[in-house]
Each structure stands twice: as structure tokens, then as C-alpha cells.
Amino acid sequence: MDGLKVLYVAGLGRSGSTILANSLGQVEGFFSAGELNFIWKHNVLENRLCGCGTPFRECPVWREVFERAFGGMDAVDARRMISLQASGARTRHVLPMLLPAGRRRIAARLREYLANTGRLYRAMAEVTGSRVIVDSSKEPAYGYAVGMVPGVDLRVVHLVRDPRAAAYSWLKKKEQPDSEMRRYMFRMGPARSAVLWDAWNLSAEALWRNGRYLRLRYEDFVAEPGPNLRSILDFAGEPGADLPLVGEREVKLGISHTVSGNPNRFETGAVELRPDERWRSGMSPRDRAVATALTLPLLPHYGYSLTG
């Protein structure tokens, strides 16, 4: 299946990628797969829950995907896949990816990994009957590696959220329901999240400035979901697809088969898309000042006020 379309959501975590990807997953012909960069570790090895609520290895959809792609979940060495991925698809590989010689070295290093990733994507499309795979892994370097997979037509939605809102979300204690090994999701302070916000957003622009790339602010998406979803469907080459909305602002989520990611991926039923502005009153002045100072040069670039 040459030319399989992969719609890759890039950007820092806690930027609304889960609700965006799951909304797109309701479109006919789209399959929201979740954060596929973690599938080998979190799902094949740790057997965390699929978005349908079933342990990954028991999910009939993923069992069929792996059977078709590899002959079963244990037919591929998951630890080797994790090691290969780390050797050429991490943030430290962004700079080499910007140079022709660096891209050639990384492609050669990842040859086996890319071949297996291609088999996985094609099996997902075949099993689910999808034309577009939505991968919300977010990491720019991993997304660029996905674009090296033979037969993949990569299209990147660069999702940006106000860094102070993202920092506030990273500070909150949030339960991790898909794993018995970790009760709460990973947290980090405003300084670290702000530096990552700078690095990942700049990386996304640098890697895809000459490719199929669409930038979207989270705040714009939730304020006007209809027009922004239509723009994404047009960008994905699916202009005739129906919008997954009930009314102007509500999306009806069905059971998903997402791997890894924010616990919101387990949500089903009607969900109203609305701005989350709790950070404006809930964030401490110190944390807000730190996040603002460390992202100051990029705030106007993405249309955010210096004062919030």
C-alpha cells in the first residue's frame, strides 16, 4: 500500500493533542493510533491499556495488526526496536536531520526500524480500513523519522499551545490509569517545560519548513473547531470527509484503540471543545514569570501576549 497517509501531530505534550487526535479519529477513513513512539515499550513490553480499556496484548484490533504485520506480537524483538529508535529518533538527532549527510546516516542507522514501522502502519490501515493514520507522538525527531519510512506520505500538524498553559498542566498531579507501574503521570516544573516548548516548536518548524506542514494553535482549535478541523481534513487530502462534530462545538467520541498518551484518550461520548483557561487564575506568579521569561522570544511569533 504505497502512499499511505500519516497525519503526524507534532508539538510539546499537554498542548491538546489527545482531543485533537481523537476528534480526527471519528472521521470516516481515519484511525487515531495514539503515541506510537511508545508502542514497543508501553504496550508490547509493559502491556498497558489500549484506548478501548483492554490490556494491549488482549485487544483484538492490535492482535490482528501485529499478526498481519509480523506474525504476532512476539515475532519482533521489542527491546531491539526501542534501542534502534533511540539511536536515531531522539531530540539530539534534530540537528543532524537538518543536513543531507546527517539524514543519510540516520536513515542507514534506522533502516530496520523504519522497515518494521512501515509494516506496522500498513497493517493498521488494512485492519481498520483506514486511509489516514493519525499518530500523536508529538516528538519532532521521531516524526521526521516516520517521514523516512518507505511508502509513507507524511503530513504534519504542528500544534502549539500557550507555554504558560502547558506549564500549568505539567505541574498538575494526574492519575495514570493505564499502568500498574506508575500511579501518576510524569510531571515537570515550568523551567523545564518552557525550555522543551522552545526546543520542540523550533525543531518542528526547522524540520518541516519545506514539507507538508500546517501550524495550528490549540486556542484557535477549541475556539472554532469546525473551520480548523476542515482545514486539517483539506490538508490531509480528505476534503470531502464529514466533520466529526455535533453542533458547533461538540464532538462525539467513540471507543478508540489509542496506545499510550494522556488519560483523556479513554473518554467516550459527547465532549464539548472549549478553551481551558484555568492557568490564568491557578498558576502562581513565580511559575508564570519563569515560563514567560524562558519563552519570551517565541511568544509573539506564535501570537501570544507577553503578559498572558
TrEMBL record:
Family annotation (Pfam families): Sulfotransfer_3
GO BP, sorted A to Z: N-acetylglucosamine metabolic process; sulfur compound metabolic process
GO MF annotations, alphabetized: chondroitin 6-sulfotransferase activity; N-acetylglucosamine 6-O-sulfotransferase activity
InterPro entries for this protein: Gal/GlcNAc/GalNAc_ST, P-loop_NTPase
Keywords per UniProt: Transferase
Gene3D superfamilies: P-loop containing nucleotide triphosphate hydrolases
Keyword Transferase attributed: yes
Origin superkingdom: Bacteria
Claim: Cell division is one of the keywords in the record: no
Protein name listed in UniProt: Sulfotransferase
